[in-house]
Design a protein that fits this description.
- The complex is a heterodimer.
- Chain A is mainly α.
- Chain A is about 65% helix and about 0% strand.
- Chain A has eleven helices and no strands.
- By secondary structure, chain B is mainly β.
- Chain B has two domains: about 120 residues, Immunoglobulin-like (Sandwich); about 100 residues, Immunoglobulin-like (Sandwich).
- Chain B has one helix and 17 strands.
- In chain B, the strands form five sheets. Chain B has a four-stranded mixed β-sheet with strand order 1-17-2-14, with no helix packed on it. Chain B has a four-stranded antiparallel β-sheet with strand order 13-3-15-16, with no helix packed on it. In chain B, strands 5-4-7-10 form a four-stranded mixed β-sheet, with no helix packed on it.
- The longest helix of chain B is centred in the N-terminal third of the chain and has 5 residues.
- The radius of gyration of chain B is 18 Å and the shape is globular.
- The two termini of chain B are about 15 Å apart.
- Classes of the chains: A mainly alpha, B mainly beta.
Amino acid sequence: MSAPTTVIQFPERWLHRYAVLVVFCTLGLIGLGGLVTSKGVGMAVPDWPTTYGYNMFFFPVHLWQGGVFHEHVHRLVASGIGFLSIGLAVWTQLVERRTWLKKLAWAALLLVVVQGVLGGKRVVLNDVPVLGIPGSVFFGVLHAATAQVFFCLIGTIALVTSPWWRRGASMPVIRGAAAIPGLTALILVQLLVAASMRHQHAGLAIPDFPLAHGHLYPPTNPEFIAALNQRRVEVLAFAPITAFQIHLQMLHRLLALIIVVGVWIHGYKSLGWGTVAARWGMAWSGLLLLQFTLGAATIWTDKAADLATAHVVGGALSLLTGVLFSLVLQRAKVKGIEDNSCPQPRRFLNPLPVATGADVASWRPSR
Amino acid sequence: MKTFLAFGVAVGAAAALHADVTGKVSLKGTPPPEKEIAPLKADANCGKLVSGAPMTRHYVVGADAGLGNVFVYVKNPPADAKGKAPAVPAVMDQKGCLYEPYVIGAAVGNPVEIRSSDPVLHNVNFQKSIAATPNPTFNQAMGPGAKPIVKTFANQEVFVKLMCNVHPWMFGYIGVVDSPFYAVTDKDGKFSIAGLPDGKYTLVFKHLKAGEVTADVEVKGGSATAAATLEAK
């Protein structure tokens, strides 16, 4: 089969590269946000949108001390992502012919603005309960979740602006891959559980792994919890451990097991799906293995801030990989996602053929 | 509330109307070892302010198992004592990037002066976090040489937790009660509550880690003593 010969125009190629840049910057921002929470310094700057009364862009450098440094840098980088998102939306509007993609870029910009406001509310409404949940937890978790959704939106834009996607490259519908979107959704749920754990600022509710307080499932009766808090020698200003936090952490472990096993099974299966799918499947499996190891290391190091932050970044990458993998797999099924800027390769015209592994493996994008 | 470990002893001796209740709080059992506050030592600014290895202060155990930092207060103070705050402010300092003392007491309405002796930026943060609090929260910055922050608490709360998010290892506590009859045990577990009128009272001994016990004490002129034992499980 001959390769498609679509010519990707210069502005579109650079739009893709710019989108990739925004993806990496956003990942860095998620890492910074994770670091702020890992270090427990989210309230080091008590005001917003100002910083200690200053316009944040003119906050004196000599005051960037300790937790203020982390929180302030997080805010500055977040502002930078906001500006990058404006650029992405405007650029997409100018050079793209796909209406849905233009809308997606504007939606990303809207979301990043919402995200900024949520971050600010996390600070100024720290003590205001929402739906019976402390503002610090409610807005903190919402802020973390929105970050992941935004990251996936930007990642999607980077994917669909890529020459690979524009040329119609995709994986055809593969039997047995239907669970991949489900596993991806489970990763999002897992990230929400993780954010709920982290934003309670209680440190590690369970300090051992693979056992939990020496049990498969630890006791959570009031006597056990009281003794736990009594024996705990916390260095940082953590909140007391509660039974709820223990249940939440056990749920996190259970979900991790389900996700890792699920992804590994599909990674193994993907070896029979052709070269492109196998690469995605193996990359995702490897990422989940790394993520699982980082989670264990976070526990074994008593939640060292750098490892906990790497675990947050790994979570975001795992989710994005799942989203992109799902998109590529399901491309043929998604109505409306068609490249209007370039001809479609014949094999993706309706009715959609089911390609064999050898068929996919034989395909190479033209350069 | 555990009372089985408490020993309340009342001794009336002389013909005085107000007594000083003195006593000691002991710790039974072996507490977990304290940890070095490594982030403090590693901090570019705070590390210069301390010598040696700064340690956590969860269990301060002195001579004869005396337990420090126990907040002792009268649960049922005389009716006319409620709302009578000492005129002298209670003082909490930030020194060497730690709250000093670790635990202080204050009466409702008593000015609490929060100082900073450090040449670095701190933020004094009293937040609700997970637990609810009956007092309004605050989060204020204190730069080097800043004037003390003065706060009063309108409601009883044992304990108000102060933090500093610039230096997340910094936390200290204020026991706020609705009478002037309170004390914090020293490093040997000793305390003294002055000026308590004659009567029968219940003393509460509350420690951040070892929990809480109560003891009944009768003040009948002169001095009275009370003792309590908390347990490290």
